[in-house]
Design brief:
Layout (H helix, E strand, L loop, with lengths): L10 E6 L4 H12 L3 E8 L10 E5 L16 E4 L11 H21 L4 E5 L11 H15 L4 E6 L12 H13 L15 H13 L6 E3 H11 L1
Parallel strand pairs: 1-2, 1-4, 2-3, 4-5, 5-6, 6-7
Length: 229
């Protein structure tokens, strides 16, 4: 518990990225989950609806440190992420995909939060020659160094589902993966595309069950979801 934090009957979840695809599914699950009495959202825009459990903080996530006093809860769910197509500037890309999750983990640690969950990506590797994979890998290492007791890093493959913005390349890849999934079996199953609600559900399960894993690969995310939902 952080200094000045009052523990009520039930849990408080902090969510970053609730306006995104996976974050939206996660938010709906948390609102329906009776274990949670408050959901604190930190985002640059409103989700557009109200709920008795909801507490929205419309902030610049790149300056999250300035909102430490409000960053209080039991668990942090970080669903922040962008793409090269959406954020072509390399410096800004790293500020989002690396900077925001790491800032959230640091603040969470300072405020005594015990559980931190973040969506990374398959292939994340701090030594990779691919900038996307390298930044994700660097983010994972920095988050783990923050030392939050229960830290879970989810490494999904290509995420399915329909986004509001049109990404023709991503759409075509998803159609291809729907067919390819049928033959990706055994050791290759980790390369199957994965649905956003599966990731969201697994995040909620991990937050409430100490699995003992730091990094959870895509096929493991799928298995956890299928076993518990």
């Amino acid at each position: 518990m952080g200094k000045g934090q009052i523990k009520l009957s039930g849990k408080t979840a902090i969510v970053l990225g609730a306006t995104g695809l996976t974050g939206g599914y996660l938010l709906q699950m948390l609102l329906k989950d009776e274990r949670y009495i408050k959901i604190r959202l930190f985002s640059r825009s409103s989700i557009g609806f109200s709920h008795p459990k909801l507490e929205e903080h419309i902030v610049d996530l790149l300056t999250l440190e300035g909102h430490k006093a409000d960053f209080l809860g039991d668990e942090v769910f970080c669903c922040i992420g962008t793409t090269k197509a959406k954020t072509p500037d390399t410096e800004m890309y790293k500020k989002i995909d690396f900077g925001i999750p790491v800032s959230a983990a640091k603040i969470g640690r300072e405020n005594g939060i015990q559980t931190f969950l973040v969506i990374s990506a398959m292939g994340a590797n701090s030594k990779s020659g691919v900038s996307y994979n390298r930044i994700k890998g660097e983010m994972e290492e920095a988050v783990l160094k923050c030392g939050i007791h229960h830290t879970y890093i989810l490494q999904p493959s290509l995420i399915g589902g329909k986004r509001e913005e049109k990404r023709i390349g991503e759409w075509l890849a998803k159609q291809f993966m729907k067919v390819l999934n049928l033959v990706l079996v055994g050791p290759l199953e980790k390369y199957r595309s994965i649905e956003p609600e599966v990731i969201a559900g697994t995040m909620v399960w991990l937050a409430n069950n100490n699995s003992g894993n730091d990094r959870i690969q895509s096929h493991e995310i799928e298995k956890i979801y299928r076993s518990h939902f």
